[in-house]
Amino acid sequence: MKTIPNAFCTHGKRQPHILVLPFLFLLFVFGTLWLTGCSDDILNPPVDIPSGEYQGQYALSHANPADTLGLRSGVSEITLSINSTLKTYSLTPFGDSSRILSSQGAYKLAYRKITFTDRSMKTVSDTALLLNGEFTYTFDGVNLVITQSDAVTKREKSFFLLRAR
């Protein structure tokens, strides 16, 4: 007597394997998660920061008792000039420049991130005095807020700026 293997039904057509449906379900779930994870960059491109001057306050705070460089928490008045065509910047502090030094360089935008690359060639004992590295930012057309937190040095830098012109 001839027996029919379990992989075939009585009509001679191949039945779907029992593991195919769970695999397809997992593929659908992970594919959906991957697409939604990438949607910020695809559906929400970075908000461009128009060329001009932005004036306001720079705040430095740190809670590291081992910080021996003497940086004090506090606020400084600054002007940040942006050239959105060349993707360059220039920062000028007013009054107390013990928390941040004047600098210039290039910047790059990504969704909610701005990365400054200082090119001022200053020699400093602490690079936290220069505008350099990756920051988060928000811009609503008038207010530009830039922040950076460093878990290692326990410092937080914040810029609260208004578009001047």
What are its keywords?
mainly beta, Porin, 1 helix, elongated
* Arithmetic mean pLDDT: 78
**Could you state the order of secondary-structure elements as H and E?**
HEEEEEEEE
Structure classification: mainly beta
Biggest sheet statistics: 8 strands, antiparallel, barrel
Please work out how many helical segments DSSP would assign: 1
Q: How many domain regions?
A: 2
Which strand order do you get reading across the main beta sheet? 1-2-3-4-5-6-7-8
Strand fraction band?
35-45%
CATH class of the largest domain: Mainly Beta
Shape: elongated
Strand tally: 8
Structure write-up:
- The protein is mainly beta.
- It folds into 2 domains: 1-44; 52-163, Porin.
- It has one helix at 20-43; strands spanning 52-62, 74-83, 88-94, 103-110, 113-118, 133-139, 143-150, 155-163.
- The protein is elongated.
- The N and C termini lie far apart (92 Å).
Helix-strand layout with pairing:
Blueprint: H1 20-43, E1 52-62, E2 74-83, E3 88-94, E4 103-110, E5 113-118, E6 133-139, E7 143-150, E8 155-163
Concise summary:
The chain has 165 residues and is mainly β.
